[in-house]
Write a structure and sequence with these properties.
Chain lengths: 291, 210, 238
C-alpha cells in the first residue's frame, strides 16, 4: 500500500513506539500506508523519517515524546498532542502494556473501546456478567472547544473492577481526543476521589491493519506489575477476535449501514465527528477498494 | 506433597495446553505469571536457568524442573492420572500418542509461530508458517474425519487423551492469525467435545460461549 | 462455464450438529450456517446487523442464535428478538439478518445463493438413506475443479454442476459441489445407501480416495478461467 492521501489522517499525531524501545538500531514500521524508520542518532537525538520507494530515508518527520511513547505525524498537525492532566501527577503508576497487532481498521478498535454492552459477553466474569447486561443511559457529545468526543455518566456492573478485586457498579468517562486515540477514566477503587486512566494509542498501518498499545496511569501501589499487565492484555485479546471479525473491517460512517441503539450513543457521536472532520482513512466510505 | 508450580503466560498457547490439562485433572497448582510480552522475561537469566531454550511453559515440583508442553503433559499424566486414562499404557495406544505429541511439537508449532507473528510481530516467514500450519490442520482434519467412521470423537481410541489436550489450542486459536474453521468440520465437532471435558477452561481468543 | 444463482450444498448434514453454528463461503460471500435445537437448518448472511460481527461466531440457544459480540438474539426467521443492553425494549421488527433459503437434502445442507430467488430445490436424485463420507476442501478454483472432474472417467456431472456422480471402483458416490471462493472448492461426498450398507471401513476407504483426489486436483493447478464478475468477492477481503 502507499501513503494515504487523506489530509485529515495525515495531519494527526500517532504513537509509533514505546520510548524504551527506541535505540541505536533503526526500526522500520508503517504508518497510514507509508513506510517510516525511527531510531536514536549518535547525539541521542530521536528521529523519524519516511522511507522512499528505493528504501532510502527521506525527509525528517516531526516528533514528540509523550506518555512514554514516540509520536510522529506524516502531515502538518494543527494542534499539539492532547494533554492528560493525570499524567503529571507524581504518584501515578504507569503501565505500558505492549503493542498488539490487529487485522482491522483502527477506528473499529476505538468503537470497541467505547462500548460497554459487550462486557458480559466478551469479558465474562471480568468486566461484566450475565444477567447484568443493561446499559444505563449516559451522555455523549462532541466538545467543540477542544474538538474531542466525550461520553459521561457511564455506569456498568462489573464483577471484578481491578485484578482479583470485588464487583460492583463502575463509573466511567470516555474520551476520544483524536481519531486514533481513546481513553477512559474510571473512579479509582482505592481512592474514590481520584480517577484511574486507561488509554489506547493506535498506530494505523493500513486501512484494515493496525497495532495498538494500552497505557495506564493508575493510583495503585498494591497490584503487581505483572498482574496489571495480564489483566489488560487478557481483555485486549478477548476484544481482538471481535474486531477482526466485524464486517466490513472498515468502519461504516453511513448511519443506516448498521443498527445503533441507545447504548451505542458514543459510537454514533464518534462516527458523526469523523464525518464532520472528513476523515476517510479506515472508513468503509472513504477506504480504498479492498477487492 | 511438594507444590506444582507453572511458569505461565496467559496469552501463550503452549502454556494453555498445560493449564487445560491441569484443569482437566483437577490439580491444584501455583501459577507464576511471566512477563513475556512486552518484557521478554522468559529470556532473562532467571528463566534461562529453568529452561535454557528460553520458552514457556515450565513446570517445577520439588527438585524437578520440566519444560515444554508435551513433556509436561506426559509427566502430569503419569504422575497424577493413576487410572491411566489420559495416557494409556497399551503399546499400540501409547505409540500413537507419542506420534501425535511429536506432531504437536513439530509441524503444528508453525501455528504457534504464525499466531505470535500475527499478535506480537515476532519475526517469521509468514508464507511458510501459514502454509505449514494449514497443512497441520488438514492432517488433523483428515485424521478426525476417519475417526468418526469408528464412532469415536477423540484423536485416539474412545476416550480423551493428552493428545486431545495437546492439539486443541492451536486450532482453537487459529482465527488469531486469520485461519477460519470453515474447512475443518470434523475438527469443529471434535473441538465441541473437547469443550465438554470436565474442568475445561478457555483463554482469550477462544470465546466462552460456543 | 460459469456458475449462476441457485442452490448449492454448503456442508454435510451430519457435520452440523443441533445447536451449533459454523461459517462457510459461497462465491467468497461469508455465510453463517446453523442448526437449531429441533434440527432445522439456516443459512444467513454472516453479519450481525448491529455492529457487523460475524454471526457464525455466535451461539445457538434453542430456536435462536445469539451474536457473540453483544448477545443480540435472532429467531429462525432472522428477526431480532432480544437486545440485552436494553432488556425492556420491544425490538423493532425491522432489525433482521439477511436469510437465504436453506434445506437438508441428500445428507447435505443446501442453500439458495440468491436472497430474492424463490426456486425449489430440484435434484435428479431423491433418497433418504445416505451414508456420509466427508467434506473435502480443495485449494483449486471452482471452474478448474469442475473441468478437472468432468475430464475424469469416473465422474459424471449432474444437476447443472451441483452434483457429481462418482464411480470409483465398486462404489457409487455422490459429491455436492460448493464453489467456495477464489481458488477454493468444497466437495461434500456421500454414499447413496444406508450406513449399514456402507459401514465404517467402506467410508474410510472412500475418504482415502477423496484425499488422493484432492492431491491430484491441487498438484496440477489449472488456471482459473472464470470470467470476470462471476465471483462476488467480499469487498473487505484482499
Ligand atoms: S454486533 Fe451482533 S450483537 Fe452487536
Ligand atoms: Fe472489550
Amino acid at each position: 500500500m502507499t501513503k494515504t492521501t487523506d489530509i485529515v489522517a495525515l495531519d494527526e499525531w500517532y504513537a509509533i513506539a514505546v520510548m524504551a524501545d527506541v535505540g541505536g538500531n533503526p526500526i522500520r514500521t508503517r504508518l497510514l500506508g507509508q513506510d517510516i524508520i525511527y531510531g536514536r542518532g549518535p547525539n541521542d537525538r530521536v528521529s523519524v523519517h519516511e522511507v522512499d520507494a528505493s528504501g532510502r530515508p527521506g525527509a525528517a518527520l516531526p516528533t514528540r515524546e509523550r506518555y512514554n511513547c514516540l509520536w510522529t505525524s506524516l502531515g502538518a498537525p494543527r494542534h499539539e498532542i492532547f494533554r492528560l492532566a493525570e499524567a503529571e501527577e507524581k504518584d501515578r503508576r504507569v503501565v505500558v502494556c505492549g503493542w498488539i497487532k490487529m487485522r482491522t481498521s483502527g477506528l473499529r478498535l476505538v468503537e470497541n473501546f467505547l462500548d460497554m454492552a459487550h462486557f458480559p459477553y466478551i469479558h465474562p466474569n471480568i468486566l461484566g456478567a450475565e444477567p447484568h447486561t443493561e446499559v444505563p443511559q449516559y451522555a455523549s457529545e462532541i466538545r467543540r472547544d477542544v474538538d474531542e468526543v466525550w461520553a459521561t455518566n457511564c455506569q456498568f456492573y462489573q464483577p471484578q473492577i481491578v485484578a482479583n478485586g470485588p464487583g460492583g457498579m463502575v463509573q466511567l468517562t470516555y474520551r476520544v481526543p483524536s481519531p486514533f486515540v481513546v481513553m477512559l477514566y474510571r473512579v479509582c477503587p482505592s481512592s474514590p476521589d481520584r480517577l484511574d486512566v486507561i488509554m489506547m494509542f493506535i498506530q494505523p498501518i493500513e486501512e484494515d491493519l493496525c497495532r495498538a498499545l494500552p497505557v495506564m496511569y493508575l493510583i495503585d501501589d498494591r497490584s503487581s506489575q505483572i498482574d496489571l499487565l495480564n489483566f489488560e492484555q487478557v481483555i485486549f485479546l478477548q476484544d481482538r477476535i471481535i474486531v477482526e471479525n466485524q464486517r466490513p473491517l472498515l468502519l461504516p460512517l453511513e448511519p443506516r449501514s448498521e443498527t445503533p441503539t441507545r447504548a451505542d450513543l458514543s459510537s454514533v457521536v464518534f462516527r458523526r465527528w469523523l464525518k464532520e472532520k472528513g476523515l476517510r482513512f479506515g472508513t468503509a466510505e472513504g477506504g480504498r477498494d479492498l477487492v | 506433597m511438594a507444590k506444582l508450580t507453572l511458569y505461565d503466560y496467559e496469552l501463550d498457547d503452549q502454556c494453555y495446553k498445560v493449564r487445560l490439562f491441569l484443569g482437566a485433572l483437577g490439580c491444584l497448582y501455583d501459577k507464576v505469571a511471566v512477563d513475556v510480552h512486552p518484557g521478554s522475561e522468559h529470556r532473562s537469566a532467571r528463566y534461562l536457568r529453568l529452561n535454557p531454550l528460553g520458552a514457556l511453559p515450565i513446570l517445577t515440583e520439588a527438585d524437578l524442573t520440566i519444560y515444554g508442553a508435551e513433556a509436561i503433559l506426559t509427566y502430569l499424566a503419569l504422575k497424577y492420572d493413576t487410572a491411566r486414562v489420559w495416557l494409556p499404557e497399551k503399546p499400540e495406544t501409547f505409540g500413537r500418542i507419542m506420534q501425535w505429541l511429536a506432531f504437536s511439537g513439530s509441524i503444528l508449532s508453525a501455528a504457534s509461530i504464525a499466531r505470535a507473528h500475527a499478535l506480537f510481530e515476532i519475526e517469521a516467514d509468514e508464507t511458510k508458517v501459514y502454509r505449514k500450519a494449514r497443512l497441520a490442520f488438514r492432517l488433523m482434519e483428515d485424521h478426525m474425519t476417519k475417526q468418526q467412521f469408528d464412532d469415536t470423537f477423540w484423536f485416539i481410541g474412545n476416550t480423551a487423551t493428552i493428545v486431545d489436550i495437546a492439539l486443541f489450542p492451536n486450532i482453537a486459536l487459529s482465527r488469531d492469525f486469520g485461519v477460519d474453521h470453515d474447512e475443518y468440520p470434523a475438527l469443529r465437532r471434535w473441538m465441541a467435545h473437547v469443550r465438554g471435558i470436565p474442568g475445561f477452561i478457555t483463554m482469550p481468543g477462544i470465546p466462552a460461549y460456543h | 462455464m460459469s456458475f449462476s444463482g441457485g442452490w448449492y450444498p454448503v456442508a454435510l448434514s451430519n457435520q452440523l450438529e443441533p445447536a451449533t453454528s459454523a461459517g462457510t463461503r459461497l462465491f467468497d460471500r461469508e455465510i453463517c450456517i446453523w442448526r437449531d435445537s429441533d434440527g432445522g437448518v439456516h443459512a444467513w448472511e454472516d453479519r450481525c446487523p448491529h455492529r457487523g460481527m460475524r454471526l457464525s461466531f455466535g451461539f445457538v440457544r434453542g430456536d435462536r442464535i445469539a451474536c457473540l459480540y453483544h448477545g443480540w438474539q435472532y429467531d429462525m426467521q432472522g428477526r431480532c428478538r432480544f437486545i440485552p443492553a436494553h432488556p425492556q425494549l420491544d425490538v423493532p421488527s425491522t432489525i433482521r439478518v439477511a436469510t437465504y433459503p436453506c434445506i437438508d437434502r441428500l445428507g447435505m445442507v443446501w442453500m439458495c445463493s440468491d436472497l430474492k430467488m424463490e426456486m425449489p430445490l430440484d435434484l435428479p436424485i431423491d433418497r433418504r438413506d445416505i451414508a456420509p463420507v466427508r467434506s473435502l476442501y480443495v485449494d483449486c478454483a471452482p471452474i478448474a475443479t469442475m473441468q478437472a472432474l468432468s475430464a475424469r472417467s469416473e465422474c459424471t456431472v449432474l444437476a447443472g454442476g451441483a452434483l457429481i456422480s462418482i464411480h470409483a471402483g465398486p462404489q457409487n458416490m455422490i459429491a455436492g459441489f460448493q464453489p467456495f471462493g477464489k481458488g477454493k472448492t468444497a466437495l461434500h461426498i456421500v454414499f447413496l445407501g444406508s450406513p449399514e450398507q456402507y459401514p465404517g471401513n467402506a467410508r474410510r476407504s472412500a475418504a482415502v480416495w477423496a484425499e488422493e483426489l484432492r492431491h491430484d486436483l491441487e498438484r496440477e493447478p489449472v488456471p482459473d478461467t472464470a470470467p470476470a464478475g462471476s465471483y462476488e468477492a467480499a469487498p473487505w477481503r484482499s
